[in-house]
Amino acid sequence: MTHAREVRQIRILDLFKQDRGRVDRFSCEAAGLYLDVSKQQATRRTLRLLFKLAQARRLPNAIRRLFSGEAVNSTENRAALHMALRSPPGTFMPVAGRNVVPEVLDVLARMERFAESVRNGEWRGYSGESITDVVNIGIGGSDLGPRMVCQALAAYAGTLRVHFVANLDGTCLSDLFRQLTPSRTLFIITSKTFTTQETLSNAATARRWVVAAGGEAAVGRHFVAVSVNAVEVQRFGIPAKHTFTFWDWVGGRYSLWSAVGLPVVLAVGMSRFRELLSGAHAMDEHFRAAPLPKNMPVLLGLLGAWNTNFLNYTSQVVVPYAQRLEHFVDWLGQLEMESNGKSVDLDGRAVNYTTTPVLWGGVGTSAQHAFFQLLHQGPAVHPVDFILVIEPAHELADQHRLLLAHGLAQASALLRGKDLVTVQRELAPTGLQQPSADVLARSRVLPGNRPSNTLLLPRLDPYHLGALLALYEHRTYVQSVLWHVNAFDQFGVELGKQMAQRGLQVLEEPSVHAGAGGEDLDPSLQRLAARIRRLQKH
Ligand code: F6P
Fold first, then answer.
1. Any catalytic annotation for residue 338?
2. 3-state DSSP call for residue 446?
3. Is the pTM higher than 0.85?
4. Pocket of ligand 1 (CB under 6 A)
5. H or E segment to which residue 389 belongs
6. What is the distance between the alpha carbons of residues 127 and 144, in angstroms, rounded to a whole number?
């Protein structure tokens, strides 16, 4: 902590003056990506201390354990081997000593056959017509990943229209039904557990919609499932031949590489999906082999922990300067905050330090007109990850150059700020009189010295997108090791789910005053439910 106190007094700009080699030292390349962390409030000694911390937390061993299929998800006694999903033929990726890559490849082959039959019109609906629209029904990791990747790779999409329904809000399906024709719509019910209430409610509604149009027999032509739970899928009425499985050693928020990625294959084809897998695999190999000082996920993770635990910055902002990455922050939010939003460590002890900060953001340049005022002049510091794509997927080269200029400029503006002397010099010609001149000048000062990373992707193509996503998956794991928490369970979401059932009863039965365990329902819930009941039209 002594070092942190010293570093807080340092102007990052001075570090560039003191060390001409800073940018080289504080950057690295992997899987075609380039990461510049030189604008972080960190010295070379900071990095040395962080690498010592990583060693003290046995990070290299933790990385080895992850790739060897050990039960790193200790509370559920499971491996977390999402890297196996993108491992090429011939790779050995063991779970409980058994290589799982062959079965991964089998599922990929089934996905390819199925997707091609839908994309080329062979797959027919109950009326004998081909499919024009696919609707993925799923939530959390069964939605955010494929939704984000389909949007990011829109430049590669074919004619099949792919839609996503996640929220329990009937608006989602109701709006979609107005656009779709039952006979030409295929539903993918994606749920690892196949017990998630939102997904099953939406699935049941979709089922009724199809049956109303094509009869019970239509279900077999208009529904496929992606799940670990074959029994519940069968109970819903989807046969095994239309079920794409994945495994309990794949966490929901790490599952887009599995059959959960089926909407992506339907949208852009299997060859592009394989490129996505290939980019992620390249990042896996880098993570596994690169020495800590030039290991991209390790650098990102360590400096993130430095900002959170030593400089006490309470949030992390991510701003992709790419409109097609508009869902990226949503996906990353679940990845980071559902993985490391924990306060009990692997030994069952309450942690006495911060774990993951709040992660938020938006796309640039729009975000500059939304929350960048806070980033530049707010009292708190919010470190930013800028993500820039060098080559556009469109012909408007001039606009793209301007977009990149904004991204670079914002990072520099956060670094430099604008001091009082500079502001006063700028205001002098206005001839403004005191005291308003002084107030105005002080209101226009930007403190600067605000840290950021800049990540460069050559293009927003499947390969580099895969590398980007795997980079953040491994950053999340690195930080879980530093914080000694389990990145792969999510018990915190269970209570809300349980109480939702009680909430429903309170809304439906005025007499209900106690919870499932006999506990009193809080008066607020009771009053709100009573008011809703009284004011509801039907
Ligand atoms: O948010 C809780 C959670 O269990 C996530 O981890 C998961 O991605 C999501 O709900 C959906 O779960 P399932 O894929 O089992 O429907």
1. yes
2. strand
3. yes
4. 139-142, 191-193, 196, 199, 252-253, 338, 490, 493
5. strand 384-391
6. 32
